[in-house]
Amino acid sequence: FGHPAQLSKLVSMMNKLATSCVVHLTPDLVAFAIPPSASSGVQVSAELSQRSVFFEHRVESKAENNRISFFVNLDNLNRALKSCCSNKTQKTQVKLTKKMNGGPTLTFEIVLSESQVHVLHDVPLRIVQDAEELHSYSDPLFEPGIEALSVVLPQGDVRNMRNVVERMKMFSDYVLLTVRDSLGDAGSGGRSGGRSAELQLQVEKESLVTISTTFTKLERPEQDLGETDVTLTGAAPPNSEIEGIVEASATLHLKQMGRVLNGLISSDIKMHSSICCVVPSRTIVFKVFLPIFEGDEQNPSIVFYLPVQL
């Protein structure tokens, strides 16, 4: 293992949302996915580079893209990873093995530094045999040019949003999320060119009281023509009532949003920023970027797809 603590925190966070997940191992990536049916409607996917997890690794499979995919209980995996994070751990090897009963197992061989004692943790799993089993785990597909609007949230704002959501849950079950930005004339940059994006959370209590919190002076993610992620390439929907303003809104369940934010904060996973993307009438995409380790060729991230209320 290279960085077991970050992986342990990621699995701990996912364990707060669901009991099991699918794991994909390739020569380049370690990926996790939770379908909407397993986490009260919230879909989750995460990708880490192999280099950010292991010092040395080898993946050999006859499957497409040299990939090994399996289902695993998150609680079992979480316990094994926590054992790898002890200060007494000198080295950990992870192997995909078959035990005497013939069942596939993820075996953690942990060497303790002081006593050279070897500790074994066996995590039962089930190998994916049919690609159809993975259908519900696939990320949603969005057509090119779909209307959407995104803002970048610094790490501190993610924590503040969690606190706001917890307070709003006392007044309503649902929250209206609105991303708003003024049209500048200097491309797609954030604060440059007169842009000042906002993210507003608003709840109503019995149609009598309206409570809102607005995160201001936010940046927009820079457009990347080679990127297919809807959080970066969505076409901004115009607000016909206010000239020079674009905005996108969607309503979602506060309990679902709270579970996601609480999972991120309570697991103490390291993150440096996130993107909140509102796709009206479709979904709220919340993409969290994790720290990049030396040798990483892509940004490790976690993506949450929250269902909206129509």
The secondary structure category is alpha+beta
How confident is the prediction overall: mean pLDDT? 85
Give start-end ranges of low-pLDDT stretches.
185-194
Coarse morphology: elongated
Describe the model.
A hairpin with a 3-residue loop joins strand 1 and strand 2. With 310 residues, the protein is an alpha+beta fold. It is elongated, with a radius of gyration of 21 Å. 34% of the residues are buried. It has helices at residues 4-15, 50-53, 74-84, 155-168, 230-233, 254-266, and strands at residues 20-25, 29-34, 43-49, 68-73, 89-98, 104-112, 118-127, 149-154, 174-182, 197-205, 209-218, 245-253, 273-279, 283-289, 301-307. Residues 185-194 have low confidence and may be disordered. An 11-stranded antiparallel sheet has the order 5-6-7-4-1-2-3-15-14-13-8. A 4-stranded antiparallel sheet has the order 11-10-9-12. It is built from 6 helices and 15 strands.
